[in-house]
What does this fold into?
Amino acid sequence: MLRIDFPGRGLGRARTGSAIIRATAGQLAVVWRVILLVLNLRLDMWESSLRGIDPAEMHRLLPPWIIPLLTLALVLWFGILLAVAKPKRSSWTSVLAAL
It folds into this structure.
């Protein structure tokens, strides 16, 4: 298996390509969680500022619970999409074995 050594990280810190991909995917997941959290907490205030109305009026027009609800729907849809489109592990091992 391909091993990559990161200079300056000390000896014994080499990682395989799949470990790097898993680490990168984990970091991207954390970044998207932070982005969704910030949007959930501040989107109504940003919208009221852009429209030039009072935040209380914005809450009357756009209830505060709707943004977290739509975020939850987006996360569930993405999870279902990943579950449906995820390739079977055995097919990948047969492709890698053929190489």
Observations:
- The chain has a mean pLDDT of 79.
- Residues 30-98 form one domain.
- DSSP finds four helices and two strands in the chain.
